[in-house]
């Protein structure tokens, strides 16, 4: 130990005070040099009285509150948010996973309840009656009222099946709405999350509607795969994108004719007035599994239409974004607006 005496003096001559300087008896030795230019601080080893200690700054940082990262699932669609509607893609991971779980649950309920269980109105798929099969074939032949309209102008290459106009109207209304989803699916900014064929998906959707659309809505919420290279747009996809206005007009016209046909079609066939047709519709929904399933489809389309359009408003012509953003909540009309206002150069 080193010692020294320091004397302080003043005019009042106080007594002298001694201060002792102490030399540390413990040695502090750095065993590894510390670089100030490392991105991540490394552990520093040192010894105190020959007992080795290790200090790791990363342990402190890991335990410090508020320093953790919170991953966000951010949509790249700035136009969608600037258009006034919040994009469903702007969700954190927890909400995204919750939505995916709900969609997969909805898919399970849709298939089990509408196809397999005998409790819903009508026959399940494993006990379907010949009457239901004949009705389904007749409705398919009257697709978009092509055969009835041809017969009405004297063209009788094939005779159109005669069914109740309410059942024909409901069938073609849902199919017309489904038809207009094609341009929306082929221009969806998140379609690359779905690794399958969009041609097959939309083709099956035309016949089985939400049986295939619900899984797509869940899969498109997956995180982007950085190693995945998007496949080239198919010929059908190119036709649907480039001809989106035509698709919108055809689908919209089919939906309009379906409503008018259901209310006034086959007026000479003794199908009754509006109250009688309404009563038939209620009875039809409560006795036929196909009609009952169409109500589910309409309900799900009311949810999926604004969701998908809201995520893809950046595909719309800039001066039409506000209008489409408002109309997307109107069933059928919003999808017509999307098809008519789609920007042909949106991906360029």
From TrEMBL:
Keyword Transmembrane attached: yes
> From which residue to which does the signal peptide run?
none
Q: Which PANTHER family match?
A: TRANSMEMBRANE PROTEIN
Q: Which residues cross the membrane?
A: 101-120, 132-150, 170-188, 200-219, 244-264, 290-309, 321-342
Protein's organism: Sesamum alatum
What's in the keyword line of the UniProt record? Membrane, Transmembrane, Transmembrane helix
Q: Kindly provide the name given to this protein in its UniProt entry.
A: Transmembrane protein
Judging by the UniProt lineage, the source's domain of life is Eukaryota
């Amino acid at each position: 130990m080193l010692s020294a005496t320091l004397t302080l003096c003043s005019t009042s001559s106080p007594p002298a005070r001694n201060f002792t300087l102490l030399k540390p008896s413990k040695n502090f030795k750095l065993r590894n040099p510390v670089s100030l230019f490392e991105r991540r601080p490394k552990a520093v080893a040192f010894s105190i009285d020959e007992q080795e200690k290790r200090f790791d700054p990363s342990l402190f940082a890991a335990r410090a509150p508020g320093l953790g990262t919170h991953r966000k699932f951010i949509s790249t669609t700035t136009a969608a948010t600037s258009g006034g509607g919040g994009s469903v893609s702007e969700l954190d991971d927890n909400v995204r996973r919750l939505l995916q779980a709900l969609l997969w649950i909805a898919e399970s309920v849709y298939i089990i309840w509408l196809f397999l269980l005998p409790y819903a109105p009508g026959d399940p798929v494993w006990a379907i009656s010949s009457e239901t099969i004949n009705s389904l074939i007749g409705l398919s032949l009257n697709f978009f009222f092509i055969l009835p309209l041809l017969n009405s102008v004297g063209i009788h290459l094939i005779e159109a099946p005669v069914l109740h106009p309410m059942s024909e109207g409901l069938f073609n209304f849902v199919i017309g709405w489904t038809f207009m989803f094609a341009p929306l699916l082929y221009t969806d900014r998140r379609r690359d999350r779905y690794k399958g064929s969009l041609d097959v998906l939309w083709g099956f959707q035309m016949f089985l509607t939400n049986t295939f659309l619900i899984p797509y809505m869940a899969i498109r919420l997956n995180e982007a795969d950085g190693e995945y290279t998007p496949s080239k747009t198919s010929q059908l996809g190119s036709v649907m994108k480039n001809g989106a206005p035509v698709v919108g007009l055809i689908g919209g016209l089919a939906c309009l004719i379906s409503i008018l046909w259901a209310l006034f079609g086959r007026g000479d066939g003794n199908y009754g007035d509006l109250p009688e047709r309404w009563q038939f519709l209620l009875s039809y929904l409560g006795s036929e599994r196909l009609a009952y399933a169409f109500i589910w489809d309409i309900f799900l389309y009311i949810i999926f239409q604004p969701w998908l359009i809201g995520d893809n408003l950046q595909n719309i012509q800039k001066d039409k974004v506000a209008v489409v953003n408002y109309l997307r909540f109107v069933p059928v009309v919003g999808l017509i607006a999307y098809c008519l206002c789609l920007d042909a150069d949106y991906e360029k």
